[in-house]
Design brief:
By secondary structure, the protein is an alpha/beta fold. The strands form six sheets. Strands 19-24-23-20-22-21 form a six-stranded parallel beta sheet, with helices on both faces. A five-stranded parallel beta sheet has the order 3-2-4-5-6, with helices on both faces. A five-stranded mixed beta sheet has the order 7-8-9-11-10, sandwiched between helices. Helix 19 (465-471) links the parallel strand 13 (456-457) and strand 14 (486-499). Helix 1 packs across helix 2. The radius of gyration is 35 Å and the shape is elongated.
Length: 873
Amino acid sequence: MTPPPPPWRTPRVAYADVRRLERELGCSEPMAWILVRRGLAEPDAARAFLSTDGDLADPLAIDGIAEAADRLRQAIGSGEHVAIHGDYDCDGVCSTVILAQALRARGGTVTTFLPSRFTDGYGVSDSTVERLAESGARVLVCVDCGTSNVEALTRATELGMDVVVLDHHLAAGARPPGIIANPALGRGMDALPAAAGVVFDVVRVLAHGDEGLLGGDPEEGVDLAGLATVADAMPLVDGNRRLVHRAVQSIRRGERPGIVALLAAAGQGYRGITPRGLSFTLAPAINAAGRLDEASRALDLMIETDPARAREMADALWALNARRREVERQVTAEAIATVEAAGELQPVTVVAGEGWHEGVVGIVASRLVERFGRPAIVLSTDGADAKGSGRSLPGLDLHAIVADASDPLTRWGGHSGAVGVSLASGDIPAFRDALAASAAGRSADIARARTREVDAVVAGADLTLAIAEELEALAPFGRGNPEPRIVVPGCAVSAISRVGEGRHLKARLSAGGVGVPAIGFSMGRRAEGLTGDADDARYDAVAKLEVERWQDTMGPRVSLDDLVLLPAGPVVAGHCADSCDVACGLRVAPVAIRDMVAEPFGAPAPVKGAQAPVEVRDRRGEGRGLPLICALAGADRGVVAVVADVPRRRAALSDVLNPGRLGVDVAVLGGGRCDAEAVRARLAMARGGPVLALLDYAALEDVPLPSDVHVVAVDPPMTDVQADWLRVASAGRTVHLAWGAEEADLALRVALADLAVRDVARSLWPGLSAHDRGLPWGPECDRLLAGDGPVSRSPRSVAIALAALADAGLVRVGDDGLAVVQGAPPADIESGAVGLRAAALADEARVMAARSATVDVLGSVPEWLPEPAGALS
């Protein structure tokens, strides 16, 4: 059975690229991770992206732009009547306004026409063409439409009109007559502008024409071109990104009374507009006109020059937008209930409702995608006819899926992220089945698309206003440049409540000693499930870090996409499923403990001549051990986390470090209790692929680390031997020091327990003395040495205790087993060489723990080490 996809993933990158950007750009680490994952690893490329002041794209780069501009220049010069046929969405409205105002400003005679969603439908019809011809139009310009309307535009030429199409939609088959400027027909989707961007390019060419008649501002209409680019979900990269930036600057100057009035109606000032305001305030309000009434209401507002009249129109349009939101909420609730009542979810959600307002079905489809994590098509039926819209997951081509299921459709079109369809109501089941068959061949693509791609793994300490403001430099956000998605792994969630009439989730996240408030829009339904989870439940918070502005105040806002209960994700190779008790079959064998007695405090590390680390990153006291491990699992060949004791750490870390979501091929637990050969074998399963390993200091002596892994010291070393082995493990690698006071306290407790010679010897003595003929190495000896506790005894502590007993003449450690020396006089094992060395190391550990926040543990000679005591190393 194929394992489920992980709930989120981070594309693997080179950590050296992250560090280079941190240094050369002076940016935060989260920002550097984001830039590298977005293909901006080179500092110059990152700087260019972050700078939105560059030149706009060459307007003549799109085929047909020059010819379109020439024909319009000719029409103005000869006084020909120009008809502009737009569309009823924001892009269509903005395209129409830009061109109409540009031509009228140059003395052109212009008629505009925006179709009704309810009576005309999408595109150009024969009847509309005939009406425009009768009105005297001699040039028909189709903006945001026309590419697929071959019959209607052929009719236009028969009626004596020259046709110009300024569009950006995909269309198969024959092309209409006339001049066509449509980048979708000859350029990759990544560079696709909105239709308003195509129109804006034509206006720029006109502005660079002859002085006088056709001169003018080369950026007139830039505000609407950028607004339409955001509204139509165009890729916000390259020229589109710079265009939206210019649009925001233009709107902040208050040059268009209609936009100023619409923002005022929304309770916002134009001087503080952001790209987010384009997407969430202006675009929905303009779209509301075409969704619920006539798009001409928005067109009239954008053209209006009188501020007072514009405010009246804006108030009316904003009221219409409020009604649109209420209709959308009602239809969304009904659609969700219909889907859930149907039982098992299909690869593509198809839901239909009689009388659902067709103006909101596209928005409702988006809500279903968010809710159910798969593409959705929402249909409004009116008797025998059905019409609807579909939306897709990021990176999943819904246009291609529908193309293979289009036989039942009477009309359809769109692009990879959105489609519009028409069909007979009776054919909805056949369409649903055809979609299921089409999607079945793309199941892997759908599964990948359902996994949320994360740009950066961050700690609670990173959720600050400073970093939220820094991330705003990546705006404007949209398709091709989505708002950065972060994950805070292993959070505790508390203070759970529902707000906004129960629609939204409010909670508090705690991670790394930092607590922050979070909001989950449209996630209110999750509240009951979260409060029902165990008190110690941990979650990955998949979210966006934003700046929240309210009146004159600002603060960071964590906007949740999901809360993933851990553990989550598929099982990966090498992961140790057994607990660290006597039942584990991969523990150190008793004969191995025999060999350890000769060097009970560990073998000296070969530090002389060892290669230096590539870099030492001191992250002590920042509470970022866990997020750091999760982040580095997605870099280079993975990460080895070094801890004081695997059994004590696996309980706290193994679930939150569930490797199935971290993009590693192999996960390994390996400690001093583990058979070294078994640990090496599990690491070898990676075969050069990425690995996540949790090793303790004792394992470093016997387990060579894979190349190109990062080393994260979660707990500090407590002895000179441990520090030396950390140096050896760090050779040629980047090492991250990530402990804090709690980790130092745990490491000290582990060290003191291993060095408690008398306590360990006392626990072993009854079992040893019960075998007056000796105890051979074997299962019975193994059980005695391991103990019967929830965690087996540390082999190091057993070796030290046996060495002390042997040093005192109380026990013989031989090739055949262990034996109590009969008749040996009582002895103080703590006063012998082994006991004294253990006491000295215990003092050393206390000093190290006290100074762990600042001590240089990777220096050539650790300045904190006291002189060695006793004869044993």
